[in-house]
Design goal:
The chain has a single domain, classed as OB fold (Dihydrolipoamide Acetyltransferase, E2P), CATH 2.40.50.500. 0% of the residues lie in helices and 58% in strands. The chain has no helices and five strands.
């Protein structure tokens, strides 16, 4: 994984994970997500997140939205 404090932007599938949410990363692995709102419209859909790594495997998400492919 990456270093705590680093800013990241990643794509993958948003999944329910116990009492929270995680990102199943396109490049493999997963991030647990610390979200400031509940993104129920995006569960089990492809998304893009940006945020800061705050612990091993945990991202404080600043932005989450649909992953729109570029032509």
């Amino acid at each position: 994984m990456s270093t705590i404090g680093n800013r990241i932007e990643e794509t993958g599938t948003l999944i329910a994970d116990g009492g929270g949410f995680a990102l199943r990363r396109d490049i493999g692995g997963r991030w647990k997500l610390d979200l400031h709102r509940v993104p129920v419209d995006y569960v089990e859909k492809r998304v893009r997140i940006s945020g800061i790594i705050v612990a091993d495997g945990l991202v404080d998400v600043e932005a989450l939205g649909p992953d729109i492919p570029t032509p």
